[in-house]
Amino acid sequence: MYPIAIASLVTIIFVIQYFYPDPTLSYMTSQIGNWGIIFAAYAMAYGLVNLVTRRAMDVIKSRGRNLYSLWILIMAVVTSTLGIFGGIGQPQYSWIYTFIYSSLGATLYSFSYLYTASAGVRVLRVKNLLTALFLFGAVFTLLGDVPAIRSFVPQFFDLRQWITGELARGPYIAFNMSVGIGIAIMGLRVIIGAERRWAGIED
Amino acid sequence: MISTDIAIWIGALWVIFAYSFIIRDNPLFKFCEATMIGTTAGVFTVIAFDNIKKLALLPLIEKQAYINIIPLIIGILLLAQVSRRQFYLSRLPIAIMVGGGIGTAMSRTITSNIVIQLRSIMVPLPKTPFEILNIIILIVGLLGTLLIFTYTRERKGPFGWVTKIGEYLMMAAMGSTFGLLITMRVTYVITRLQIIVFDLLGLG
Amino acid sequence: MTETKGMDWLAFFRKYRRQTTQSLIIAIIIIPLIRPLGLPLPITERPKAVYAIIETLGPETKVICSMNIAIGLMGDVNPGTIAIFHHLFRRGVKLYIVGFNEDGVSVILEPYILAAAKPEIYGYVYGKDWCVLGYVPGGTVAWSTFAANIRSAVQYDKYGNYIDDLPMMKGVNSLNDFDIILDCGGDHTDIVVQQWADPYNKPYISSAGIGGVTIWLEPYFKTGQLDGYVAGVTQGAEYEQLVGISGRALSTIDGVALSNLFILTLVILGNIMLFKSKVR
Fold first, then answer.
1. Do the beta carbons of residue A98 and residue A90 sit within 8 Å?
2. Cα–Cα distance for residue pair A124/A78, rounded to 1 Å
């Protein structure tokens, strides 16, 4: 009961502050915003504890033979120790962040393209009118993105612009509005206390 | 000329190890995965600690902002999620986070996602046949897509036709987004391969 | 014999379809990197709109740049961002950079963006002509807090300087004191529109990834909430041409062109085979 009321009250404070920016309300909303970040930080720290515990159990059960779990453990502990005790600007932590976390992260993320492309080749098949339209949208967008074709046949680019700018505009305005309506309804449900699933209470 | 910069070598090795998965799953790729999982966990923990330090500990110690004791104590309650008996304690910090997040999003989304989007379709009367066609497609696409998500009415008659056309236009829109996604993601691969071709091997 | 050979190849392809497709894509991308094709590149309307806006800016213009490029989107967004930075520095604007995700100002700004678009070659002095206000955590709330009162969100810049010690921060207290918004990243277009551009009524240009064109960029551009954008590496290459710099985007678009054509070829072949099998 009390958490539902607190969520409702905090939502009302934020909404009122938007339409009536009183200094006291602005101070309250910025403080509550900072509190949210601190709570999220606790959740992240719990995530690390969870990861370290599970991987340590893996290593112990396998008597050190599960090298991947051991490596995950080493990297997690070394990175967090360097960053927490040395600070974010600490040279070794910065090195790990730039040459391992960002570089490897970008590489693994780029790998998703190969699967998108090979999946795209299988998905773009004409089986009925809906899939034909899906293919139409995808094919002419891909063609319009080839600069050489664009310079020899400018109409392909005009068609691509028409598809992305005019044909897709109605549906995407509808999506944006649906998202807006959904958020507004969710907000109203939180305010009146009807939305309780976040508290683990089923409707 | 092959580079001797260790940073470039490390970047290139990551690309070779990760892309070796194209052939099949292998220890090199698993090594990359394990490295990524461990480093990500460490980095996020450091960010979390840094946030707590900047937003709560430093103001508390340096500026005697005693109000910051409240989030430090309430945040600990979040860890009560692990216990079935004490789970209810975690609802307090979650309530504050939910209220703040939804309050911020709700107040702004009404203006930007609804009012201004609606205003954008109130355009001057079209003059050319092409503009008339575009307006018809826009209105039918908008109404049709919105009505697709209405589940309280059977799709028959004029309602059925509008939702059908909305479905078709939505599929064409999704297709164009898929095409853009393919174009976007190929640049990620090209950037990674540029490390090997340009930076490491000095070709091109 | 030929038939058996053909069937073996087909059987091989069916068995190793994913590996073959992906390996061929990699090979096709590498070719133009080693031997550029030099394909022509016409310039489109959206980058021209950004160019026209930046051409109206001058030495007293204050530009607030939200640097939110995610590591995964670097390849797509960096070329356009670097070209826009060159253009801004050439116009002599005052540039204030702030980040709302962990990667933008911490990982990508210095080694990639500023290493390519060096402010010092334009005579820029840190603290007087440009500054980096650091990373502000907190998601959507952080954007609105920063916009309402900068000092409630940021007290120190990225390098540990107290922001009131920076000469260019004098008289700059909220988003009202800036003249134009530049967002680099594109993932937060809706938040920029909701929290900055609309409430404070500021012109807004974006350097973004191409994936957001239909979802955010075009709809907001059509409503006038976004005044121009450079999306993806192709438009980044166009902007490089407009500004007259030679960056990596031009070598990238040959690879984009060939891989798109390869995928289209496979799609057409796949549909022909599907049609033939249905007819049979």
1. no
2. 46
Residue C169 within a domain: yes
Q: Is C211 exposed, middle or buried (0-12, 13-18, 19+ CB in 10 A)?
A: buried
Q: Which residue in C has a C-alpha nearest to residue B52's C-alpha?
A: C137
Number of helices followed by number of strands (H, E) in chain A: 9, 0
CA B46 – CA A44 distance, rounded (Å) = 9
Mutant choice from C21, C143, C207, C233 vs B, greatest count of B C-beta within 10 A: C233
Nearest Cα to Cα of residue C19 among B24, B190, B192, B25: B24
Going by their DSSP bridges, the two strands C204-208 and C228-231 should be labelled as parallel
Residues 149-188 on B with a CB inside 8 Å of C are 173, 176-177, 180-188
CATH number at residue C56: 3.40.50
pLDDT digit string (tens) for chain B, length 204 residues: 788 888 889 999 999 999 999 888 899 999 999 999 999 999 999 989 988 888 888 888 888 888 889 999 999 888 888 888 888 888 899 999 999 989 988 888 887 788 878 877 887 788 889 888 988 899 999 999 999 888 888 888 888 999 999 999 999 999 998 988 888 888 889 888 988 888 888 876
Residue C84 placed within a domain: yes
Rounded to 5 degrees, φ, ψ at A64 are 80, 5
Q: Which of B22, B45, B47, B187 is most worth mutating to test chain C (most C CB atoms within 10 A of its CB)? A: B187
Domain residues for the domain of C99 are: 45-253
Task: Give rounded-to-5 percent helix, strand, coil for chain A.
Answer: 85, 0, 15
Q: How far is residue A11's CA from residue B104's CA, in Å, rounded to a whole number?
A: 8
In a domain, C124, yes or no: yes
Distance to chain A for C261, nearest Cα, Å: 7
Does residue C81 lie within any of the structural domains? yes
Q: Is the confidence metric ipTM above 0.90 for this complex?
A: no
**Looking at the 3D structure of chain C, how many domains does it have?**
1
Sign of the torsion angle spanned by Cα atoms A27, A28, A33, A35: positive
The whole-model pTM stands at 0.78
